[in-house]
Every structure is written in structure tokens, then in C-alpha cells.
């Protein structure tokens, strides 16, 4: 039992588990913000364009059985709008992250040097070579490293 508890403790202390826990908590908070934005900001604007229609109150009442059985399709419309907003925000975040990674990668590559290539066959040659080992052409000058663009 002691070994089991130690394994569980090691599992919980892994970085990815903690990252996932933080992501769930932040996601729940973000969901509350999006719900508020949709119901308090966006839907009134949509309602103004649709003649004051409030989607959240839209229901299709079913004549089956006793009680107020209804399909709340207005709530579904709100949920779809919330999903689209969340998807758009996640898209913007991923796009910004990819751009930042790209800038970091290109900045790092600018410092790296590119191996010399033969001007005739474009194959890589050793630094200082005077003849290409691939096409056997004589190089105009000894091959040297150049900065990557």
C-alpha cells in the first residue's frame, strides 16, 4: 500500500498533471466570462438586430403528458454562440503562440551558420573543400560557412 501511495504521489507531482489541473480551473473561469459576455453583451445586440428577440427564452412546448415539457432551443442557440466565441479566442491564442514560436525559431536560426554548398550541384560540401565530392567540380574558392538568412 505504501508503494501505491508513493506512485500516486509521484503521478500527481508530475508537471503535466499540475498543468492540466491549472488549465481546467482557468477554463472554468474563462467559461463564466464567456457566458456573461454572450448573455449580457452579445445577445442583446443580436436581439436588437432581430427585433428584440431574446433567444434564451425561446422554447418549443410539447403537448405530451402533464407539466411544462419544452425544448429550449434558444438556450441551444446561446450555447452555439458561446462555442463559436470560445473557438475563435482559442484560435487567436494558438495563432499568437505559433507566431511567437516562429519568431523565436527564426531569431535562433539567424545566429546559426549554414553548411557550405556546391554552387553547381547544390550539394553540401565540407568546409575548406576546393572540389565538390558529388559532382567533382572545382569550386571557385574554398568552401566556408555562411550565415543563415
TrEMBL record:
Keyword Transmembrane helix in record: yes
InterPro entries: MS_channel (IPR001185), MSC/AndL (IPR037673), MscL_channel (IPR036019)
Any single GO CC term annotated in Swiss-Prot or TrEMBL for this entry: plasma membrane
Membrane-spanning parts: 20-50, 70-94
Subcellular location: Cell membrane; Membrane
Membrane topology, from the record: Multi-pass membrane protein
Keywords from the UniProt entry: Cell membrane, Ion channel, Ion transport, Membrane, Transmembrane, Transmembrane helix, Transport
Pfam families: MscL
Any one GO molecular function term: mechanosensitive monoatomic ion channel activity
Claim: Membrane is one of the keywords in the record: yes
Family label: Belongs to the MscL family.
Quaternary structure and interacting proteins, as annotated: Homopentamer.
Function per UniProt: Channel that opens in response to stretch forces in the membrane lipid bilayer. May participate in the regulation of osmotic pressure changes within the cell.
UniProt xrefs under PANTHER family: LARGE-CONDUCTANCE MECHANOSENSITIVE CHANNEL, MECHANOSENSITIVE CHANNEL MSCL
Descriptive protein name: Large-conductance mechanosensitive channel
Lineage: Bacteria, Bacillati, Actinomycetota, Coriobacteriia, Eggerthellales
